[in-house]
Amino acid sequence: MLDKLQDRVNANPGLIRRGRFVNATVLIEVGPDPWLVRFVDGRIASLVKGPFVMATWDFALRAPAEAWAGFWAAHPRPGFHDLMALIKRRALRVEGDLQIFMANLRFFKEVMASLRAGAPA
Amino acid sequence: MKARLEPVVGRYMNLDLLGRPHRLYFEEAGQGVPLLCLHTAGSDGRQYRGLMNDPAITRDFRVIAFDMPWHGKSSPPAGWHEEEYLLTSRDYVRMILDVMDALALDRPVVMGCSIGGRIVLHLALEHPERFRAIIGLQSGAHVDPYYDLQYLHRPDVHGGEVCAAIVSGLVGPAAPEKERWETLWHYMQGGPGVFKGDLHFYKLDGDIRADVARIDTSRCPLFLLSGEYDYSCTPEETLAVAASIKGCEATIMDGLGHFPMSEDPARFSQYLMPVLDRIRAAKT
Questions:
Q1: Distance from C-alpha of B10 to C-alpha of B28, rounded to nearest angstrom
Q2: pTM
Q3: ipTM computed for the complex
Q4: Which of A18, A63, B108, B124 is exposed most, by the fewest CB atoms within 10 A?
Q5: Count of H helices and E strands in chain A?
Q6: Beta-carbon neighbour count of residue B20 at 10 Å?
Q7: Which of A71, A86, A105 to mutate against chain B (most B CBs within 10 Å)?
Q8: Which of A75, A89, A106 has its CB closest to that of B165?
């Protein structure tokens, strides 16, 4: 699923414009699988699947695969429909330099939701 | 081209609140039973634009919404630039009663959402005789903080952007795009630190868990309506409040989130109208 992230984000000019000041590397864990996503000026410059030895990242989003699957459903159930909902339920952990995450919260919510079934490609 | 004018009228009032002069903005539409509406944290009275433009409601109800001090078109009190805004239960209750007195509202129905849905529980507990009926939207007795509130007000995070982004998921997924983004725009327009100051009441000062069971609905009817997609005040939390208060009625609204009157006024009115009909029929 996450392998589609680069194409989904980079094909969305509005999303890139909103993220134009985002230069950061984000670790995303889907259950046991880690991915490193490097954003440059709002675009995804690289997307690499782990495992990693000594990965460097700015912040991490870690959730069980079932939580992400619920979030990416075309019509998510209550509690699965937003990153903050997952955080409130302790299903998603956000760690690291949260200033980047919070200063660009709409952008990162929309980046992750771009993988939602039926989301515009 | 001829403009279509809405029946909504806005005015400013000058009054003393909490011992200081204030200039407050309020809007109203309709006639009949006064229905005083309280907006959510970090937003303003525009959240009730749908109700004020709904003839089925304004035919029998005078819908009134004021912007709290620091919110919308209301000013903060003089001297605000040296203060940290922090809302407390005591001040919030006092403000509502003083606005009622200033507008000469005789036993209105009061309806509040989120922080407004919390403060109406305080009103039900402390001042039931002042109201004809009380409606709580997204009412819970307490909400634990689930993110670091400091991010809502610091110079390296844009306050308007982050406040809207924090609450964006609280809008139900089926909400019409126009109303969803209007709702979020209000959050983007809030003053620095105001949403955070409101949440001081919502998450810290206004915890009413220990007292909520003492609400006596024989003194004033209490209706609770909550959207199923709200993860700030969850349906479970509303149902827990209702279960602890004898005679309190709660309804969970399918598909709606934390801002029912603003995010999807048409869907919300399907749930509100039966409550208003019963209040009108009771003629208390």
A1: 7
A2: 0.96
A3: 0.95
A4: A18
A5: 6, 5
A6: 11
A7: A105
A8: A106
